[in-house]
Sequence to fold (500 residues):
Amino acid sequence: MSGNTTLLVNLAKGFALSEFYPHKHPTLVQGIQKLDAAFQARAEDSHIDVHPTTLAFAGEAPARRSPHVERFAARLGEHGVRSLVFRREVGSDSIGRFLSACALPPRVARAAGGFAAVLEAAGAAKLAVNGHWVQPAPKSAAAPDRGDDGIALWTAHDMYQQVQFSALRVEKEDTAELRRMLHEGSDGQRLEALQRLEFVAQYCVQRGDMDRALTMLDELRRDAEQLRNPVTRGAVMLAMHRTATHAIINELVLRLGRARSEAERAGHRSTLLHLGAEVVTPLVRELTAASDLSARRAYRDALVALDAVGVPLLEDMVGDQRWFVVRNIVGILGEIRSADALVHFARTILHSDARVRRETILALSKHGDEQAVPLLVKALADREPSLRGAAALGLGLTKSGAAVLPLLQRLGQETDLEATVEIIRALGRIGDPRAGSALAERASAGGFFSRTPAQVRVEAVRALGEIGGDASRALLQRLLKDRSGEVRDAAFKALSPEPA
Fold:
């Protein structure tokens, strides 16, 4: 994938993050900084055209389907955006304000005077919408000076008092009442309730009360899912982030692996999802160490869910020296089917360990489109016969005409029986008449000194039936009188019409 389309995918993932994290969050900040660096690396302004189901950067759209890009294009369309221009010096601040505006419901933007008016009110600059440059509104001198995270800081005296009475408060704090205040109270009450809930959670962490700390974290996650006010929801998520120390995250990941019910796994997975990029490393670490299949499945599902909201996975681990780490990452990328996964598969399809190459072939087979064909063709020449067969199976699943000639070439060279059978099956699935003569040769009994194995003949007959056409039918008619009963049966079935 080119640099242009990579930037489009990253911009779309930034939008997904801004929807999921409606307030400033470390994961979102990292994504915005990455986008800023990409814009600065360009020598000129970046022009993006908005289409109903995709985006085009300098006339170039992602070569394959990207759910992130599709969703972002749809939202921009709802906002009435047809084109965007970003100056190379647009800056992280304006990118963040732009993405936040995109995440607003269209009805809210319309009520505020339209998408461009929202951008101007938000203070975005150095970008154009539908050919008109955004002119940021001047800042009000009376605007309050808020902290970086939008939550007022406690004074030193307040902190001293909190430490002094912490034990009593933790024991007597009515968290149910605090949670009610968080949902139903005034702005001031919500702020106080959140501060007190966060303090209880952090106190539990400091005292090593892991069970209660995790319960508090889980309850904060439920609050974040239920709250409608985006600022309050974002503040709750930031409180979760501050509470979730490395020890808490590691324990939560371990409990995800030990969970035995889907409801329990879903709860742990959702809490990890709200914590963002900080949980990726522990998840990958436990995934690579896990021997229990259900635990590995739980870790993989969590990593797939993280990518779904735009959290970047540790794709640099594709270059890890440990084969099992690379295999697991390839498997995750295969399930995600991200738009840029093929760039990493181009490396792993040539990995020195056969288990990594096998996982790569399986991942490419899941893509099931023409973009995977060149890499699967490389795998047709693998030194392991079973992997050559797996690559042939993957090419057959693509049903791409571009795979026919490479398959025919490999068929003429293949010496392994199972790989030969898979190549023939793939040619049958694709159904291209160009394979007819080669399949007819394999369907014949062969010469006295080079008898064709019955299994190969039967598969060739079936493939000819899938291709169809007059030439195939004529050969199948002759094979109805073949000496081999298996071949005769296969020819009869191939000529028989499918039941309605």
Confidence is low (pLDDT under 50) at residues 140-154. DSSP finds 27 helices and five strands in the chain.
